[in-house]
Amino acid sequence: MVLDGILVEQLMGMNRFTHRGHGYGFDLEDAHEAMGRLKPTPDQQKGLQGTNQDIYDTLVLGTTTTKTIGGDSKSYTLRFVDWENPANNLFHVTAEFAVEGTTSGQVQHCDVVGFVNGIPVLVMESKRPSESLEKADSQLIGYQQADNIPQLFHFTQLLITMNRREARYMPRWEHRVNSGTHGGTRKIPTQPLHP
């Protein structure tokens, strides 16, 4: 699910560390090690919600790697997302993103997937104006089932369902129902766009 080449380049490009007053960059091996920590192996998975929470924590906090300079070893943090300078991140959006099912091998096409530094953080399902948002909600829920494409949702932090009349979003795995929400989703205020 992760766009590996983009993530590796971003990890090396936006992360630096200082040792005894000198600045250094991380190398390809460091980037691959960090990427391996972001991607859960089957034995590290804790169900969809638990795995998503672990990945969320890693996205927010980063990961560490040990570097040895002149015989002196120290741990340094690699960030997956530059939260302080968003312009340093690389954003991609793709329509009809194809994902192969984990057990069925069936390919699903998500309407829109948004990536930050090669990490799929947004999945959007769009319907015709005549179709209800519940149909889009149901489709996203179906995608998350174990026999479908749950691996995409290990990384996803924002889900959006929409048609031309309305839209809803759900940040991560927030299932608390607050006023103005629909089953854990929040209705997005809509207004016509004017030039």
Can you put this structure into words, describing what you see?
It catalyses: Endonucleolytic cleavage of DNA to give random double-stranded fragments with terminal 5'-phosphates, ATP is simultaneously hydrolyzed. Keywords: ATP-binding, DNA-binding, Endonuclease, Hydrolase, Nuclease, Nucleotide-binding, Restriction system. Its EC number is 3.1.21.3. The protein is α+β, with helices and mostly antiparallel strands. It has 2 domains: about 80 residues, no CATH class; about 100 residues, no CATH class. It is built from 5 helices and 11 strands. The strands form 3 sheets. Strands 5-6-7-8-9-11-10 form a 7-stranded mixed sheet, with helices on one face. Strands 1-2 form a two-stranded antiparallel sheet. The two termini are about 35 Å apart. About 25% of the residues are buried.
In short:
This protein has 195 residues and is α+β, with helices and mostly antiparallel strands.
- What percent of residues are in strands? 25-35%
- The H-and-E topology, N to C, reads as HEEHHEEEEEHHEEEE
Instruction: Kindly give the count of domains.
Output: 2
User: What is the gyration radius calculated from CA atoms?
Assistant: 19 Å
Total helix count? 5
Mean pLDDT: 86
The spatial strand order of the largest sheet comes to 5-6-7-8-9-11-10
| Portion of residues within helices | 25-40%
Shape summary = elongated
Output the keywords.
195 residues, alpha+beta, 2 domains, 7-stranded mixed sheet, 27% helix, disordered C terminus, restriction system, ATP binding
